[in-house]
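#lab-general

N.A. 3:47 PM
ok so I finally got the sequence cleaned up, no stray characters, all 210 residues accounted for. can someone with queue access submit it? mine expired

B.Y. 3:52 PM
send it over

N.A. 3:53 PM
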Amino acid sequence: MITLYGPPASSAGRCYWTLEEIGLGYETPEFSMKNKDHKAPEFLKLNPNGKVPALVDGDLVLWESIAINAYLAAKYAPALLGTTPPDNARVTQWSVWSQVEYQPPLIALFIQKMFVPAERRDGEVIKKSIEKGEALNAIVDAHLEGRNYMVGDAFTLADLNVASVARLNTIGGISLEARPNLKRWLDAMLDRPARQKVNALENASRAAAH
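B.Y. 4:20 PM
back already:
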């Protein structure tokens, strides 16, 4: 049985999504970031960085969500990695880009909007995050002109990993109305049954925490 550590409303969310897309059985031990379970000695044996997610599959222990998703796809659903070497490389390209370039400004904005009281928010951080986020949204929007998927003609990890970040736009208050290709594609990705299941898990997790 696969074991995934980390709440669905975290970086582990994209791993939940991958597991649901593939239809794999998995277990998720009760895990509280508020209680600092990610810093507990038992968890640090799995991920010495003290961050989520971590995944255990038999004797294999993995951390970093992009690596976890790539492993799950390679072992259980290779088509999610693309069906040709060029497409596989493009899936890797967009997946890495989503973490290295796309996520940082949107996460910075998310933190300011969701966790910092209004009177203490850093206006300069918000301004720069929105500017950078808009520029990166333009890249995705241009790429999706005439396309239904990030790579090839079918859903891959490129879609899943990029959409997992793109959804932060709405949470951070960035409108996608001026990015019709991105909005069309993101709406379709977030409407997928597997993503809807993860949304339900997120909601249940938040409810249990309060």
